[in-house]
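Support request, please re-run this one:
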Amino acid sequence: MKNLITRAVTGAIFVAVIVSSIIFGPSSYIGVFSAITYLMLNEFYGLMKTHKGVTSNTLLPSIGGVVLFAGSALFMMGLIGVKIYIIYLAFLMITFIGGLYGQKPDPLKNWAFIFLGQVYIALPLSLLNILGFLHNGETTSYSPILVLSIFAFIWLNDTGAYLVGSMIGKRKLFERISPKKSWEGFFGGIAFSILAGIAFSYISDIMNIWQWMGMSAVTSIFATYGDLSESLLKRNIGIKDSGSILPGHGGFLDRLDSILLAAPAVIIYLSIIFL
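Re-run finished. Output below.
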């Protein structure tokens, strides 16, 4: 019971922080998500150190990811030019050159895991800025609705998958990686997300009802793949949680793994329907 209460309180605070940071404006959004980017990368690189031969530090690549996220947000706002990407490019070059002078036993693994973290975490989180800063003619303005909707779809997908799966789930979705997930829960999660998509169509006219429903379904499907991908990562390493910073929930990577595939998928989806 105590663990259940701890989990519920932590979850409520986590959701409140995410939602409020998105709603209150670009400053809170950039600040909170820059911190999240750093924490997720720090957890990831810490986990990668458990692999034999990996000796890279966690600080520099974690900061590099923050530069990509915050820099792209400021670029979208028009507050900084393309030079911010030159700084990130310099970080990538330093990573390669550092491997030459580091005299590490397995520099290839260090390179591989550093760049994996950037592609797996920093890049998808940075893509959220494309959704958060909408271009209208010659101006770009902050609009929280799309970013907020993705998180709503993911959370309702998780809720629907859990409720339906626990009640009627029989057919295993991916037993090798996540034994508790079922096909019934998978489709239950999609149904909950689509209902949320219908609700958002009444809140915002940025898309019609069918487009909102499509976005919610895409988010739900790829959120599940994002969760499974992190489960595979943890199973390969042999751990249960990516961290312990969130009591009852593990680490930030555990709580936000779904967004890492959902965000790119939504970008692709929106690019297709608005071509």
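Residues 178 and 231 are 7 Å apart (CA to CA). The chain has ten helices and four strands.
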